[in-house]
Amino acid sequence: MKYFNQLLITLSLGLAILSSAQALAANKAPEIASKGQAIAEQKQAMKNLHGQLNASLRAAERHTVELTTSELSTLTAPGVDPTGRYRVGVHRAVGKSVSHDNADLIINIPGAYAVRLELAHVKGVVSVFNESGQARQYTEDGFTHTFIGEEVTVRGAAHIEGAGAVNLAGNLCNFNASCVENAQCTSIPNDINAVRNAYASILFRSGGFYYVCSGGLVADSDSNSEVPYFLTARHCVSKGREARTVETFFQYVQSSCSEQQNCSLPDSNTVGSTIVKSGRKGDYSLLRLSDPPPSDSVYLGWNSDPIASTDAAELFRISHPGGAPQAYSKHEVDIDAPNCSSWPRGNWIYSRDLLGATEGGSSGSPVLNGDAEIVGQLSGGCGFNVGDVCDYGNNATVDGAFAAYYSDISQFLGGGDPDPGGDCTDADGDGWCVEEGDCDDADPQVNPGRNDRGRKWGDDGKDNDCNGIIDG
Protein backbone atom coordinates (compact mmCIF):
# COMPACT_ATOMS: atom_id res chain seq x y z
CA MET A 1 0.00 0.00 0.00
CA LYS A 2 1.52 3.27 -1.05
CA TYR A 3 1.45 6.49 0.93
CA PHE A 4 2.43 10.01 -0.10
CA ASN A 5 3.02 13.03 2.12
CA GLN A 6 1.51 16.00 0.32
CA LEU A 7 3.92 18.95 0.60
CA LEU A 8 2.86 21.02 -2.40
CA ILE A 9 -0.89 21.04 -2.84
CA THR A 10 -2.60 22.07 -6.03
CA LEU A 11 -6.36 22.03 -5.75
CA SER A 12 -8.17 21.21 -8.96
CA LEU A 13 -11.71 21.26 -7.70
CA GLY A 14 -14.38 19.71 -9.83
CA LEU A 15 -11.87 18.28 -12.29
CA ALA A 16 -13.09 15.11 -14.00
CA ILE A 17 -10.96 13.22 -16.49
CA LEU A 18 -13.35 11.44 -18.81
CA SER A 19 -12.56 9.10 -21.64
CA SER A 20 -14.84 8.27 -24.54
CA ALA A 21 -15.39 4.81 -23.02
CA GLN A 22 -16.64 6.39 -19.81
CA ALA A 23 -19.32 8.24 -21.74
CA LEU A 24 -20.86 4.85 -22.49
CA ALA A 25 -21.00 3.54 -18.94
CA ALA A 26 -21.64 -0.12 -18.27
CA ASN A 27 -22.38 -2.12 -15.17
CA LYS A 28 -22.67 -5.71 -14.02
CA ALA A 29 -24.38 -7.30 -11.01
CA PRO A 30 -22.58 -9.78 -8.68
CA GLU A 31 -22.72 -13.53 -9.33
CA ILE A 32 -22.40 -16.57 -7.06
CA ALA A 33 -19.79 -19.14 -8.04
CA SER A 34 -20.95 -22.72 -8.54
CA LYS A 35 -17.72 -24.32 -9.74
CA GLY A 36 -14.76 -25.11 -7.56
CA GLN A 37 -14.73 -27.07 -4.34
CA ALA A 38 -16.38 -25.90 -1.13
CA ILE A 39 -13.94 -24.95 1.61
CA ALA A 40 -15.33 -27.68 3.87
CA GLU A 41 -14.70 -30.23 1.13
CA GLN A 42 -11.15 -28.91 0.65
CA LYS A 43 -10.47 -29.34 4.36
CA GLN A 44 -11.86 -32.89 4.38
CA ALA A 45 -9.80 -33.86 1.33
CA MET A 46 -6.70 -32.47 3.01
CA LYS A 47 -7.45 -34.38 6.20
CA ASN A 48 -7.85 -37.62 4.25
CA LEU A 49 -4.61 -37.08 2.34
CA HIS A 50 -2.68 -36.23 5.49
CA GLY A 51 -3.93 -39.41 7.10
CA GLN A 52 -2.79 -41.49 4.15
CA LEU A 53 0.67 -39.92 4.12
CA ASN A 54 1.14 -40.33 7.86
CA ALA A 55 0.08 -43.96 7.63
CA SER A 56 3.11 -44.71 5.47
CA LEU A 57 5.92 -42.79 7.12
CA ARG A 58 9.41 -43.25 5.71
CA ALA A 59 12.94 -42.34 6.64
CA ALA A 60 13.70 -38.71 5.93
CA GLU A 61 16.66 -36.46 5.19
CA ARG A 62 16.49 -33.09 6.93
CA HIS A 63 17.73 -29.92 5.22
CA THR A 64 17.88 -26.76 7.33
CA VAL A 65 17.79 -23.30 5.77
CA GLU A 66 19.39 -20.85 8.18
CA LEU A 67 18.14 -17.29 7.83
CA THR A 68 20.38 -14.28 8.33
CA THR A 69 19.76 -11.71 11.06
CA SER A 70 18.35 -9.34 8.43
CA GLU A 71 16.02 -12.01 7.07
CA LEU A 72 14.78 -12.89 10.54
CA SER A 73 14.05 -9.22 11.18
CA THR A 74 11.74 -9.24 8.14
CA LEU A 75 9.77 -12.04 9.78
CA THR A 76 9.61 -10.44 13.21
CA ALA A 77 8.83 -6.94 11.94
CA PRO A 78 6.80 -7.11 8.70
CA GLY A 79 5.74 -3.82 7.16
CA VAL A 80 5.57 -1.57 4.11
CA ASP A 81 8.89 -1.42 2.26
CA PRO A 82 10.18 1.08 -0.36
CA THR A 83 8.14 -0.63 -3.10
CA GLY A 84 4.94 0.43 -1.31
CA ARG A 85 4.03 -3.18 -0.59
CA TYR A 86 3.60 -4.97 2.74
CA ARG A 87 6.56 -7.33 3.13
CA VAL A 88 5.98 -10.48 5.20
CA GLY A 89 8.70 -12.93 4.24
CA VAL A 90 11.88 -13.89 2.42
CA HIS A 91 12.77 -16.39 -0.29
CA ARG A 92 15.93 -18.47 -0.25
CA ALA A 93 17.52 -20.83 -2.76
CA VAL A 94 17.58 -24.46 -1.63
CA GLY A 95 18.84 -26.68 -4.46
CA LYS A 96 17.90 -30.06 -2.97
CA SER A 97 16.29 -32.99 -4.79
CA VAL A 98 14.12 -35.85 -3.65
CA SER A 99 13.12 -38.98 -5.56
CA HIS A 100 10.37 -41.57 -5.35
CA ASP A 101 12.83 -44.28 -4.35
CA ASN A 102 14.75 -42.47 -1.65
CA ALA A 103 13.74 -41.09 1.73
CA ASP A 104 11.46 -38.12 2.20
CA LEU A 105 13.01 -34.66 2.34
CA ILE A 106 12.26 -32.36 5.27
CA ILE A 107 12.82 -28.65 4.69
CA ASN A 108 13.30 -26.79 7.97
CA ILE A 109 13.52 -22.99 8.32
CA PRO A 110 14.04 -21.95 11.96
CA GLY A 111 12.10 -18.79 12.80
CA ALA A 112 9.49 -19.18 10.05
CA TYR A 113 5.82 -18.91 10.95
CA ALA A 114 5.02 -20.71 7.71
CA VAL A 115 6.90 -22.26 4.78
CA ARG A 116 6.28 -22.29 1.06
CA LEU A 117 8.31 -24.20 -1.56
CA GLU A 118 9.27 -23.67 -5.19
CA LEU A 119 9.23 -27.00 -7.02
CA ALA A 120 10.98 -27.88 -10.30
CA HIS A 121 11.42 -31.05 -12.37
CA VAL A 122 8.31 -32.56 -10.85
CA LYS A 123 7.74 -36.16 -11.91
CA GLY A 124 4.47 -37.90 -11.19
CA VAL A 125 2.76 -36.84 -7.97
CA VAL A 126 4.67 -34.95 -5.30
CA SER A 127 3.16 -34.69 -1.82
CA VAL A 128 3.98 -31.90 0.63
CA PHE A 129 2.73 -32.07 4.21
CA ASN A 130 3.45 -30.92 7.76
CA GLU A 131 2.73 -31.94 11.34
CA SER A 132 -0.24 -29.56 11.61
CA GLY A 133 -2.50 -31.63 9.38
CA GLN A 134 -1.92 -29.77 6.11
CA ALA A 135 -1.20 -31.84 3.00
CA ARG A 136 -1.22 -31.06 -0.73
CA GLN A 137 -0.22 -32.83 -3.93
CA TYR A 138 1.43 -31.37 -7.03
CA THR A 139 1.92 -32.69 -10.56
CA GLU A 140 3.76 -29.78 -12.17
CA ASP A 141 6.47 -27.24 -11.46
CA GLY A 142 5.67 -24.10 -9.55
CA PHE A 143 4.99 -22.78 -6.07
CA THR A 144 3.25 -24.79 -3.39
CA HIS A 145 0.61 -23.60 -0.97
CA THR A 146 1.79 -22.14 2.34
CA PHE A 147 2.25 -24.60 5.22
CA ILE A 148 2.08 -23.54 8.86
CA GLY A 149 5.20 -24.19 10.92
CA GLU A 150 8.96 -24.18 10.45
CA GLU A 151 9.17 -27.33 8.38
CA VAL A 152 7.48 -29.38 5.67
CA THR A 153 8.02 -32.88 4.34
CA VAL A 154 8.33 -33.55 0.61
CA ARG A 155 7.60 -37.00 -0.82
CA GLY A 156 8.00 -37.82 -4.51
CA ALA A 157 10.36 -36.83 -7.28
CA ALA A 158 11.18 -33.13 -7.54
CA HIS A 159 13.90 -30.53 -7.18
CA ILE A 160 13.36 -27.94 -4.44
CA GLU A 161 14.51 -24.75 -6.14
CA GLY A 162 13.74 -22.48 -3.23
CA ALA A 163 11.83 -22.00 -0.02
CA GLY A 164 9.95 -19.07 1.42
CA ALA A 165 9.70 -18.20 5.10
CA VAL A 166 6.72 -15.99 5.87
CA ASN A 167 5.10 -14.43 8.91
CA LEU A 168 1.35 -14.09 8.43
CA ALA A 169 -1.15 -13.41 11.19
CA GLY A 170 -2.09 -10.10 12.20
CA ASN A 171 -7.80 -4.48 17.93
CA LEU A 172 -8.13 -7.16 14.64
CA CYS A 173 -4.66 -8.58 15.11
CA ASN A 174 -2.04 -7.26 17.48
CA PHE A 175 -0.25 -5.24 14.79
CA ASN A 176 -3.32 -3.60 13.24
CA ALA A 177 -4.15 0.02 14.06
CA SER A 178 -6.82 0.62 16.69
CA CYS A 179 -9.19 2.14 14.12
CA VAL A 180 -9.21 -0.98 11.93
CA GLU A 181 -12.67 -2.57 12.08
CA ASN A 182 -13.12 -6.33 12.31
CA ALA A 183 -15.63 -7.17 9.56
CA GLN A 184 -17.18 -9.83 11.81
CA CYS A 185 -17.93 -7.35 14.57
CA THR A 186 -19.47 -4.30 12.92
CA SER A 187 -22.68 -3.45 11.12
CA ILE A 188 -22.29 -3.75 7.34
CA PRO A 189 -25.01 -2.88 4.78
CA ASN A 190 -26.75 -6.01 3.54
CA ASP A 191 -25.68 -5.60 -0.12
CA ILE A 192 -22.03 -5.24 0.91
CA ASN A 193 -22.16 -8.06 3.43
CA ALA A 194 -23.58 -10.36 0.75
CA VAL A 195 -20.44 -10.08 -1.42
CA ARG A 196 -17.74 -10.56 1.22
CA ASN A 197 -16.87 -13.98 -0.21
CA ALA A 198 -15.48 -12.21 -3.28
CA TYR A 199 -12.49 -10.88 -1.33
CA ALA A 200 -9.19 -12.60 -0.65
CA SER A 201 -5.84 -11.87 0.87
CA ILE A 202 -3.05 -12.73 -1.56
CA LEU A 203 0.51 -13.82 -0.84
CA PHE A 204 3.08 -13.54 -3.62
CA ARG A 205 6.81 -13.47 -4.24
CA SER A 206 8.64 -10.57 -5.83
CA GLY A 207 12.41 -10.87 -6.02
CA GLY A 208 13.77 -12.14 -2.73
CA PHE A 209 10.70 -11.27 -0.67
CA TYR A 210 7.08 -12.24 -0.06
CA TYR A 211 4.31 -9.69 0.15
CA VAL A 212 0.60 -9.55 0.93
CA CYS A 213 -2.08 -7.48 -0.77
CA SER A 214 -5.85 -7.74 -1.15
CA GLY A 215 -8.13 -8.24 -4.13
CA GLY A 216 -11.46 -9.56 -5.31
CA LEU A 217 -13.13 -11.72 -7.92
CA VAL A 218 -14.68 -9.86 -10.87
CA ALA A 219 -17.67 -11.04 -12.89
CA ASP A 220 -17.68 -10.94 -16.67
CA SER A 221 -20.87 -10.12 -18.53
CA ASP A 222 -21.76 -13.68 -19.44
CA SER A 223 -23.81 -15.01 -16.53
CA ASN A 224 -23.22 -18.56 -17.78
CA SER A 225 -19.43 -18.38 -17.45
CA GLU A 226 -17.19 -18.37 -14.41
CA VAL A 227 -13.84 -17.09 -15.60
CA PRO A 228 -11.80 -16.54 -12.39
CA TYR A 229 -10.86 -12.91 -13.01
CA PHE A 230 -9.32 -11.26 -9.96
CA LEU A 231 -8.71 -7.53 -9.47
CA THR A 232 -5.84 -6.13 -7.43
CA ALA A 233 -3.37 -3.22 -7.64
CA ARG A 234 -0.60 -2.96 -10.20
CA HIS A 235 1.88 -1.85 -7.56
CA CYS A 236 1.20 -5.24 -5.91
CA VAL A 237 1.45 -7.55 -8.93
CA SER A 238 2.61 -6.27 -12.32
CA LYS A 239 4.87 -9.00 -13.70
CA GLY A 240 4.08 -12.48 -14.97
CA ARG A 241 6.62 -14.09 -12.66
CA GLU A 242 4.90 -12.42 -9.69
CA ALA A 243 1.45 -13.49 -10.87
CA ARG A 244 2.56 -17.12 -11.09
CA THR A 245 3.27 -17.08 -7.34
CA VAL A 246 -0.07 -15.59 -6.25
CA GLU A 247 -1.74 -17.61 -3.50
CA THR A 248 -5.26 -16.68 -2.41
CA PHE A 249 -6.95 -16.91 0.99
CA PHE A 250 -10.71 -16.55 0.50
CA GLN A 251 -13.23 -16.22 3.33
CA TYR A 252 -10.46 -15.39 5.78
CA VAL A 253 -12.42 -14.05 8.76
CA GLN A 254 -12.18 -14.09 12.53
CA SER A 255 -14.50 -16.48 14.24
CA SER A 256 -15.37 -14.24 17.19
CA CYS A 257 -15.20 -10.71 18.55
CA SER A 258 -13.56 -11.58 21.87
CA GLU A 259 -10.42 -9.89 23.13
CA GLN A 260 -8.32 -12.95 22.33
CA GLN A 261 -8.48 -12.74 18.56
CA ASN A 262 -7.65 -15.69 16.33
CA CYS A 263 -5.34 -14.40 13.62
CA SER A 264 -3.90 -17.75 12.55
CA LEU A 265 -3.51 -18.25 8.83
CA PRO A 266 -6.20 -20.40 7.17
CA ASP A 267 -5.63 -22.95 4.43
CA SER A 268 -5.21 -21.23 1.09
CA ASN A 269 -7.56 -21.88 -1.81
CA THR A 270 -5.75 -21.27 -5.11
CA VAL A 271 -2.15 -21.03 -6.31
CA GLY A 272 -0.96 -19.37 -9.50
CA SER A 273 -2.38 -16.79 -11.89
CA THR A 274 -1.66 -14.96 -15.13
CA ILE A 275 -1.92 -11.26 -15.90
CA VAL A 276 -4.82 -10.48 -18.19
CA LYS A 277 -4.22 -6.72 -18.24
CA SER A 278 -2.29 -4.29 -16.07
CA GLY A 279 -2.09 -0.52 -16.27
CA ARG A 280 -0.36 2.37 -14.55
CA LYS A 281 -3.39 4.61 -15.06
CA GLY A 282 -5.59 3.65 -12.15
CA ASP A 283 -2.93 1.32 -10.71
CA TYR A 284 -4.80 -1.89 -11.60
CA SER A 285 -3.97 -5.49 -12.45
CA LEU A 286 -6.62 -7.87 -13.70
CA LEU A 287 -5.47 -11.43 -13.06
CA ARG A 288 -6.86 -14.78 -14.03
CA LEU A 289 -6.49 -17.33 -11.26
CA SER A 290 -5.11 -20.72 -12.29
CA ASP A 291 -7.66 -22.57 -10.15
CA PRO A 292 -11.37 -21.97 -9.60
CA PRO A 293 -12.18 -20.26 -6.27
CA PRO A 294 -14.31 -22.02 -3.62
CA SER A 295 -17.78 -22.89 -4.84
CA ASP A 296 -19.57 -20.37 -2.62
CA SER A 297 -17.42 -17.44 -3.70
CA VAL A 298 -18.91 -14.28 -5.20
CA TYR A 299 -17.90 -12.56 -8.42
CA LEU A 300 -18.22 -8.82 -7.87
CA GLY A 301 -20.28 -6.68 -10.18
CA TRP A 302 -18.89 -3.39 -11.46
CA ASN A 303 -19.90 0.05 -12.70
CA SER A 304 -17.92 2.20 -15.12
CA ASP A 305 -19.71 5.46 -14.26
CA PRO A 306 -17.12 8.03 -13.11
CA ILE A 307 -17.44 8.68 -9.39
CA ALA A 308 -14.23 10.59 -8.60
CA SER A 309 -16.02 13.96 -8.82
CA THR A 310 -19.24 12.88 -7.11
CA ASP A 311 -18.72 14.63 -3.78
CA ALA A 312 -19.90 12.77 -0.66
CA ALA A 313 -20.66 9.54 -2.57
CA GLU A 314 -20.45 6.66 -0.10
CA LEU A 315 -17.94 3.86 -0.71
CA PHE A 316 -17.51 0.51 1.03
CA ARG A 317 -14.63 -1.93 1.30
CA ILE A 318 -13.46 -5.26 2.64
CA SER A 319 -9.68 -5.66 2.88
CA HIS A 320 -6.94 -7.63 4.62
CA PRO A 321 -4.66 -5.09 6.36
CA GLY A 322 -1.29 -6.62 7.05
CA GLY A 323 -2.60 -9.95 5.81
CA ALA A 324 -5.07 -10.02 8.72
CA PRO A 325 -8.63 -11.40 8.51
CA GLN A 326 -11.33 -9.36 6.80
CA ALA A 327 -11.60 -5.73 7.88
CA TYR A 328 -14.43 -3.34 6.94
CA SER A 329 -14.20 0.34 6.09
CA LYS A 330 -16.61 2.99 4.88
CA HIS A 331 -15.53 6.07 2.95
CA GLU A 332 -16.94 9.24 1.41
CA VAL A 333 -15.68 10.82 -1.82
CA ASP A 334 -14.03 14.17 -1.05
CA ILE A 335 -13.40 16.37 -4.08
CA ASP A 336 -11.62 18.89 -1.83
CA ALA A 337 -9.03 16.44 -0.56
CA PRO A 338 -5.44 17.40 -1.47
CA ASN A 339 -4.39 15.86 -4.77
CA CYS A 340 -1.11 13.90 -4.87
CA SER A 341 0.56 14.61 -8.20
CA SER A 342 1.31 10.96 -8.93
CA TRP A 343 -2.38 10.13 -8.62
CA PRO A 344 -4.41 12.71 -10.60
CA ARG A 345 -8.04 13.00 -9.59
CA GLY A 346 -10.26 11.33 -12.16
CA ASN A 347 -7.87 8.47 -12.76
CA TRP A 348 -7.97 8.05 -8.99
CA ILE A 349 -10.74 8.52 -6.41
CA TYR A 350 -10.04 10.54 -3.26
CA SER A 351 -12.15 9.80 -0.18
CA ARG A 352 -12.21 10.30 3.58
CA ASP A 353 -12.59 7.39 5.97
CA LEU A 354 -15.88 7.43 7.86
CA LEU A 355 -15.45 4.10 9.64
CA GLY A 356 -12.51 1.76 9.87
CA ALA A 357 -9.25 2.14 7.96
CA THR A 358 -6.90 0.52 5.48
CA GLU A 359 -3.25 -0.36 6.02
CA GLY A 360 -0.38 -1.96 4.17
CA GLY A 361 -1.73 -5.26 2.85
CA SER A 362 -5.08 -3.66 2.01
CA SER A 363 -3.75 -2.51 -1.37
CA GLY A 364 -5.73 -3.83 -4.31
CA SER A 365 -8.97 -4.30 -2.38
CA PRO A 366 -11.95 -3.35 -4.56
CA VAL A 367 -13.99 -0.40 -3.31
CA LEU A 368 -17.74 -0.63 -3.92
CA ASN A 369 -20.66 1.74 -4.36
CA GLY A 370 -23.93 1.27 -2.48
CA ASP A 371 -25.06 -1.35 -5.00
CA ALA A 372 -21.99 -3.47 -4.22
CA GLU A 373 -20.43 -2.71 -7.62
CA ILE A 374 -16.70 -2.17 -8.10
CA VAL A 375 -15.80 1.47 -8.76
CA GLY A 376 -12.09 1.21 -7.99
CA GLN A 377 -9.36 -0.56 -6.01
CA LEU A 378 -7.00 0.69 -3.34
CA SER A 379 -3.72 2.38 -4.23
CA GLY A 380 -2.93 3.89 -0.83
CA GLY A 381 -3.09 7.08 1.18
CA CYS A 382 -2.31 10.73 0.49
CA GLY A 383 -1.95 13.44 3.11
CA PHE A 384 0.16 15.17 5.74
CA ASN A 385 0.23 12.36 8.31
CA VAL A 386 0.07 9.08 6.40
CA GLY A 387 2.06 7.34 9.13
CA ASP A 388 -1.13 7.38 11.18
CA VAL A 389 -3.90 5.60 9.28
CA CYS A 390 -6.38 6.69 11.96
CA ASP A 391 -5.87 10.40 11.18
CA TYR A 392 -8.95 10.83 9.00
CA GLY A 393 -8.66 14.62 8.92
CA ASN A 394 -5.17 14.91 7.46
CA ASN A 395 -5.20 11.89 5.15
CA ALA A 396 -7.25 10.78 2.15
CA THR A 397 -7.73 7.22 0.97
CA VAL A 398 -6.95 6.88 -2.74
CA ASP A 399 -8.38 4.27 -5.11
CA GLY A 400 -7.61 3.69 -8.77
CA ALA A 401 -10.80 4.59 -10.64
CA PHE A 402 -12.46 1.69 -12.46
CA ALA A 403 -14.00 4.25 -14.84
CA ALA A 404 -10.52 5.39 -15.90
CA TYR A 405 -9.37 1.99 -17.14
CA TYR A 406 -12.61 0.20 -17.96
CA SER A 407 -12.03 0.66 -21.69
CA ASP A 408 -8.75 -1.26 -21.31
CA ILE A 409 -10.42 -4.34 -19.80
CA SER A 410 -13.92 -4.19 -21.27
CA GLN A 411 -12.99 -6.77 -23.92
CA PHE A 412 -12.43 -9.28 -21.11
CA LEU A 413 -15.42 -8.32 -19.00
CA GLY A 414 -17.67 -8.23 -22.03
CA GLY A 415 -18.25 -4.55 -22.62
CA GLY A 416 -21.46 -4.59 -20.61
CA ASP A 417 -23.10 -6.94 -23.11
CA PRO A 418 -24.91 -9.73 -21.21
CA ASP A 419 -23.77 -12.23 -23.86
CA PRO A 420 -20.38 -11.09 -25.19
CA GLY A 421 -19.38 -13.49 -27.92
CA GLY A 422 -21.65 -16.37 -27.02
CA ASP A 423 -21.65 -19.11 -24.41
CA CYS A 424 -18.70 -20.42 -22.41
CA THR A 425 -18.27 -24.16 -22.76
CA ASP A 426 -16.13 -25.43 -19.88
CA ALA A 427 -16.98 -29.08 -19.25
CA ASP A 428 -13.72 -29.89 -17.43
CA GLY A 429 -14.02 -26.95 -15.02
CA ASP A 430 -10.51 -25.60 -15.59
CA GLY A 431 -11.72 -22.02 -16.05
CA TRP A 432 -10.94 -21.96 -19.79
CA CYS A 433 -13.75 -21.93 -22.37
CA VAL A 434 -13.66 -23.84 -25.64
CA GLU A 435 -14.64 -20.53 -27.25
CA GLU A 436 -11.44 -18.90 -25.96
CA GLY A 437 -9.04 -21.65 -26.98
CA ASP A 438 -9.38 -24.70 -24.71
CA CYS A 439 -8.49 -27.45 -27.20
CA ASP A 440 -9.47 -30.41 -24.97
CA ASP A 441 -12.45 -29.67 -22.76
CA ALA A 442 -12.36 -33.18 -21.29
CA ASP A 443 -8.94 -32.69 -19.69
CA PRO A 444 -8.44 -29.93 -17.07
CA GLN A 445 -4.66 -30.18 -17.57
CA VAL A 446 -5.03 -28.95 -21.15
CA ASN A 447 -5.74 -25.25 -21.77
CA PRO A 448 -3.94 -22.12 -23.04
CA GLY A 449 -2.75 -21.36 -19.50
CA ARG A 450 -0.53 -24.45 -19.28
CA ASN A 451 3.20 -24.56 -19.96
CA ASP A 452 4.04 -27.34 -22.43
CA ARG A 453 7.81 -26.92 -22.32
CA GLY A 454 10.46 -27.75 -19.74
CA ARG A 455 8.08 -29.42 -17.32
CA LYS A 456 6.37 -32.74 -16.83
CA TRP A 457 3.92 -31.72 -19.54
CA GLY A 458 6.78 -31.33 -22.01
CA ASP A 459 7.01 -35.05 -22.72
CA ASP A 460 3.50 -36.41 -22.18
CA GLY A 461 2.52 -36.57 -25.85
CA LYS A 462 -0.13 -33.84 -25.52
CA ASP A 463 -0.57 -30.29 -26.70
CA ASN A 464 -1.08 -29.03 -23.13
CA ASP A 465 -0.98 -25.32 -23.93
CA CYS A 466 -3.16 -25.56 -27.06
CA ASN A 467 -0.59 -23.90 -29.32
CA GLY A 468 -0.92 -26.57 -31.99
CA ILE A 469 2.40 -28.23 -31.11
CA ILE A 470 2.62 -31.45 -29.10
CA ASP A 471 5.14 -31.08 -26.26
CA GLY A 472 6.29 -27.74 -27.55
UniProtKB/TrEMBL annotation:
UniProt KW Signal keyword: yes
Basic and acidic residues biased stretches: 450-465
Keyword Hydrolase included in the entry's annotation: no
SUPFAM superfamilies: Trypsin-like serine proteases
N-terminal signal peptide: 1-25
InterPro entries: Peptidase_S1_PA (IPR009003), Peptidase_S1_PA_chymotrypsin (IPR043504)
Gene3D superfamilies: Trypsin-like serine proteases
Highest taxon of the lineage: Bacteria
Pfam entry (one): Trypsin_2
Keyword annotations: Signal
Chain segments carrying region Disordered: 435-472
Protein's recorded name: Peptidase S1 domain-containing protein
Upper lineage: Bacteria, Pseudomonadati, Pseudomonadota, Gammaproteobacteria, Alteromonadales
